[in-house]
């Protein structure tokens, strides 16, 4: 019998990343983005991929400020207050009531349960919204960590898509009412 204590599930809270914060990060201004967000963001937030994503999200907010409650936020570990990643939805629910989740864990905090904590919080948020009927996740077929992270949350594979640049992506969905039942 294993006498090691069971690990406590990680907990996160989300801090909004305003359009101004997102634009600072997209421009590579980590100090300005951190100051605007009110939390110390990691260098990961100004990496090449993150800068592209945050620029895209800043443009999204410029076009539709009402999307702010749905898009990328900094994920802060509780109770220690360290930023461990970012997470959110790609936008508000579409006409069919579908939202798509996205999350990234800062490299130094990977494989510690933070992706599952972020996903748990995102799913609770989606399930609490009357306009959400389905939550989607798209994961690269070679991203074993994310594939493992969604396990146990009720997602079902509903399709695949691929291209030469990104490779094969697997599409998963879970009905919002199935989330509420958990």
Automatic annotation (TrEMBL):
Q: PROSITE patterns, from UniProt?
A: GNAT (PS51186)
Q: What is this protein called?
A: GNAT family N-acetyltransferase
- Where does the N-acetyltransferase domain start and stop, copy by copy? 20-177
Organism of derivation: Streptomyces triculaminicus
- Database matches in InterPro entries: Acyl_CoA_acyltransferase (IPR016181), GNAT_dom (IPR000182), Ribosomal_N-acetyltransferase (IPR051908)
Please indicate which superkingdom the organism of origin belongs to: Bacteria
Q: Which GO terms describe its cellular component?
A: cytoplasm
Q: Name one GO molecular function term.
A: protein N-terminal-serine acetyltransferase activity
Q: Which PANTHER family match?
A: N-ACETYLTRANSFERASE DOMAIN-CONTAINING PROTEIN, RIBOSOMAL-PROTEIN-SERINE ACETYLTRANSFERASE
């Amino acid at each position: 019998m294993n006498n090691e204590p069971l690990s406590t599930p990680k907990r996160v809270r989300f801090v909004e990343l305003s359009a101004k914060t997102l634009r600072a990060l997209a421009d590579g201004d980590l100090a300005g983005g951190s100051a605007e967000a009110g939390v110390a963001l990691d260098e990961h937030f100004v990496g090449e991929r993150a800068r592209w994503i945050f620029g895209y999200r800043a443009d999204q907010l410029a076009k539709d400020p009402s999307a702010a409650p749905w898009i990328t936020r900094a994920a802060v570990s509780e109770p220690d207050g360290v930023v461990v990643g970012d997470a959110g939805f790609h936008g508000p629910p579409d006409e069919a009531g579908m939202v798509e989740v996205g999350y990234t864990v800062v490299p130094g905090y990977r494989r510690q349960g933070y992706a599952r904590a972020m996903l748990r919080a995102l799913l609770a948020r989606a399930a609490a919204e009357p306009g959400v009927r389905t939550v989607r996740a798209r994961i690269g077929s070679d991203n074993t960590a994310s594939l493992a992270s969604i396990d146990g949350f009720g997602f079902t594979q509903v399709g695949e898509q691929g291209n030469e640049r990104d490779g094969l992506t697997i599409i998963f969905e879970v009905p919002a009412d199935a989330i509420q039942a958990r």
